[in-house]
Amino acid sequence: MFLYHFYDARSGPFKSLTSISQDEAREVIERIKAERPKSQCASRHDKYVQYRHNCERMFRDAFAKKGGIMEIDSPHYMVLEFSPWLSTWFEECRYIKIPVEEFDLRTVSFTYGDSMPTFSDSVYDGKEYRKKVYMYDEILEIIKKYGMPQDWNDDGKYGPERYIEAHIWSDKVIQKYI
């Protein structure tokens, strides 16, 4: 299996709004809205940065409880396998593809679907994978049960899960690809 990181060629890979101050992140979003109005990122609402930080804190705490290793404060975001939908998010989309075996999997957490709706209080559908973080072996079991979201829900018709999000809590492998 592979982990993919999608990004806009003009910004470069592995840029995270949660690795900078909230004020700086809001400035970045405003710049994207002005310079790249057709990108998915340009549609972010005013409280997105605050919501993202809160969500990240929740899945970070859940990962710590599972014994996950966090070498950095803010994770690098990737997805498990190719996501056709994510490839449409950027005006000049590029991606980096890394074999999952390259990572120390104790430094990688997963959510079945994007972490924002997965941990959102506004999604009440009773699905077992809501508000949960998985280790690699655990996400493989969830995949056996439900399949890959991009195979059955790439258009979002059946809910918010369109891919499996991976959170890389280490710079070690990422540095080789930047």
Number of helices: 5
Largest sheet report: 5 strands, antiparallel
Low-pLDDT segments:
none
Radius of gyration: 15 Å
Overall outline: globular
How are the strands of the biggest sheet laid out side by side?
Answer: 3-1-2-5-4
Total beta-strand segments: 5
Q: Please indicate the percent range of residues in DSSP E strands (runs of 2 or more).
A: 15-25%
Number of domains: 1
Kindly report how far apart the N and C termini lie: 20 Å
SSE order, one letter for each helix or strand:
EHHEEEHHHE
Question: What is the SS-derived class?
Answer: alpha+beta
- pLDDT averaged residue by residue: 88
Give the oligomeric state of the chains in this entry, treating copies of one chain as homo and distinct chains as hetero: single chain
Q: In percent, how helical is the residue content? A: 25-40%
Task: Provide an overview of this structure.
The structure is a single chain. The protein has a five-stranded antiparallel sheet, covered by helices on one side. The protein is α+β, with helices and mostly antiparallel strands and 178 residues long. 29% of the residues lie in helices and 16% in strands. The chain has one domain. The chain has helices at residues 22-35, 48-65, 115-118, 136-146, 149-152, and strands at 2-8, 76-80, 93-99, 108-112, 164-168. It has five helices and five strands, in the order βααβββαααβ.
Structural features:
5 strands; 29% helix; five-stranded antiparallel β-sheet; 178 residues; 5 helices
Give the SSE layout.
Layout lengths: L1 E7 L13 H14 L12 H18 L10 E5 L12 E7 L8 E5 L2 H4 L17 H11 L2 H4 L11 E5 L10
Antiparallel strand pairs: 1-2, 1-3, 2-5, 4-5
